[in-house]
Each structure stands twice: as C-alpha cells, then as structure tokens.
Specification:
By secondary structure, the chain is mainly α. It is built from twelve helices and no strands. The protein has helices at 4-17, 19-25, 32-36, 40-47, 56-61, 70-82, 86-94, 102-106, 111-119, 127-144, 157-167, 172-195.
Length: 198
C-alpha cells in the first residue's frame, strides 16, 4: 500500500507533467479480470460516477476493454474526454459544484464531492472565508463560464484560496486546460478510493 507522502508526491508530479504521466503515477493491485468481464450496464453502475455527473465517460470507456491495469482503465477514460467535442468537455466541467457553494449548502452534492471538499476543511469555513470563497466562485464563473476545479485532497484550505486567486489571472484557454487536468487527478483518486487501490 502506497504511503500518504509517496501518493502525494506522485500526484504533484502528475499535476506538473500531465495526464499521461498521471495515469502511471499511482498503481494498486486490482482484479482487472472481474472489471473486464462486466457488461456495459454493470460497468457504468460501478464507474459512472467517477467523472462528476458524467456517466457517458464510463460508458464510452467500456468499449476500450480489456484494460491491462487500473492505470490503463483511467487512461481510457481520460482519452474519452480528450476525444470528446469541446461542448461535451465544457458540460463535464460545468457539472462540477462550486467549492462550498449552493449545492454544498443545499446538501445536493455527490458523495465524492462532499468527501473531497470536507478533506480540505471547506465544510467548516468561517463567515469571512465563506464570503471570500463565494466572491471567488462568482468571479471565476463570470470570467470563464465554468466553475473553478481543483484536486482539493492535494491542497490545504489556504493553498486552495491561493490557487483560486492565482488562476483567476489566467485566460480562458489556460483555465479550461487547468480544470481538465485537475479533473483527471480527481478521477484517478476516486478510482483508487472506490477500489481501495490507493
């Protein structure tokens, strides 16, 4: 089982050097024969929530079986997104909730998002922090047309605020790519958690 520090180092490396390396950065023993034997419906039931409210990723990735490893399966899912039209990639980004936003307050976030945001303390913000994060969420979406996405499990609360402010200075093309890059890391972590492969 990979230690926490090694896992974090691998993910930071993956974030810096791209999703192709991200798919190889973390590995764990998984029964791929059982996964490869799933029919499409069972595969989508099991893995359809890995990409936020976007089961189409798992549905299309299923066609790329057999997968040699969990890394290979995640790489297939990433390839589905990369080969999708920009409009579908945008819809994937827009399916993500704001950090500590309306969905969090209403209790309508997915279980994965709830757990991820809580891991960075975003479920227990001070009134001032909440007001600042609401302002940042609104400013980011007004500028780019999609929510700010970050692999919160890799950051402290302070680090998230810092990254939010830094990335607000970027152009739309850069942030579209940054959001997708973070989606790839988030989904790799979700696969590990789902299959206890971390």
């Amino acid at each position: 089982m990979m230690g926490h520090s090694r896992l974090l180092a691998s993910l930071v490396f993956a974030l810096l050097f791209g999703p192709a390396l991200a798919s190889r950065a973390i590995a764990g023993p998984v029964d791929m024969a059982a996964i490869n034997a799933m029919d499409r419906a069972a595969f989508v039931v099991k893995f359809g929530a890995i990409f936020e409210k976007s089961p189409w990723v798992a549905e299309e990735a299923w066609e790329r079986r057999p997968f040699a490893s969990l890394d290979d399966m995640h790489a297939a899912m990433v390839a589905v997104v990369k080969n999708a039209p920009a409009s579908k990639e945008l819809a994937l980004l827009q399916a993500h909730p704001d950090l500590a936003g309306k969905e969090a307050q209403a209790g309508t976030m997915t279980a994965s998002s709830v757990s991820e945001q809580a891991s960075a303390g975003l479920n227990s913000l001070s009134q001032a922090e909440f007001a600042e994060l609401t302002h940042l969420n609104n400013a980011y979406k007004a500028k780019f047309g999609f929510p700010f996405i970050i692999a919160v499990r890799m950051h402290t609360k302070e680090g998230i605020f810092s990254e939010f402010k830094r990335r607000l200075q970027n152009d739309t093309q850069t942030e579209f790519a940054n959001d997708l890059q973070n989606v790839y890391i988030i989904t790799r972590l979700r696969l590990n958690k789902l299959l206890d492969a971390g």
